Known about the structure:
By secondary structure, the chain is α+β, with helices and mostly antiparallel strands. The chain has 2 domains: about 5-85, no CATH class; about 100-355, no CATH class. The protein is about 55% helix and about 10% strand. An 8-stranded mixed sheet has the order 1-7-6-5-2-3-4-8, sandwiched between helices. Helix 12 (about 210-220) runs parallel beside helix 15. The longest helix is centred in the C-terminal third of the chain and has 26 residues, at about 330-355. It is globular and about 80 Å long. Residues about 15-20 have low confidence and may be disordered.
Amino acid sequence: MNLRSKLQKKRTFDEKRRFMNPINPLQHYLLGEISKRFLKKTDAIDALSLLLNVGKDAIYRRLRGDTLLSPDELTLLAGKFNISLDSFVFKNTDAVVFTFNPFNYTVKTFEDYLESVYRDVAMMYQIPGVDVWYASAEIPLFYYIIHPEIINFKLYVWGRTVWNFEYLQNKKYHQDIIPYTVFRKAEETHHFYRQIPTTELWTLNLMDNTLNQIEYHVVTGLFQNPSDALVICDKMQDLTWHMQAMAEHGRKFAHGKPAESNGAKFELYHNEMIYTNNTIYVQSPIGQMVYTTHGNPNFLKTTDKRMCDYTHTWFERVMNKSSKISSQGEKGRKWYFDQLRRRIEAVRLRIEQAIL
């Protein structure tokens, strides 16, 4: 048999095999989505082989469609790589599938919540070429972390109201109420966040929620030592100067260390015409993701391509109608942060009068 006959016979065999074993569309979608998570196909093969506890040849057979994934394997892979099979099933409808962190686990401690945030930020940090767009109705969590006094107070508020921690219901706030180990995990999260490039959209209402919470806790007697409220206000003033310095440099850096501004890109925009909840769009060579708060600080998350594309387009449209106040936007930057500081000072004065 000559070479041409051999090649023709092989093509006939391949076509017959494809007819007998057509690739399952759901399997093709799932394995394709998993492969996008890796820079090299061989890395994906290795990961799948280890996870399914089969040889590499068996993985290639599943990729070709010669072997169908079992229901258990489909469930295992979708869960491990956080891929929604529903988004494939409902792709021709207006349904969008989100994961909601409280459905995956119940926040029983402050560590539970921070560990989930830490995992997501660490994952973003490890993705080459990642870029994050962040529209926020209040100070992003990652900046609260800069001062223990602020993040401790916010965790206390969330613990009493959102997570309903029983031991906090009749306990007044004091600065040692949050374990030091919790703040250490928060610091590790902030370290990763400083290395992730972000484009952020803020309004003048950025601090209002926290300021209102501080004042409310003073008026209702929920501060063990009311002067702690003044300390938190002072730390928020200091935070505005830090954020203004980062905006000026166009880079992220640790508190008080602008000379070491070797962090990631920080682009800041101001827009008063658009009000939104906290929305995060993650863009990278291996995929997209959208986070949006629901019952802050809990969040919804999706990798649905239509939702990701829509959110990306929304960000581009809004940014084009916003004022950039980082890097060269000196006049707008000064005005913006001066306004924030005036709001903090007004609340601080009312608190002083309340506790005299």
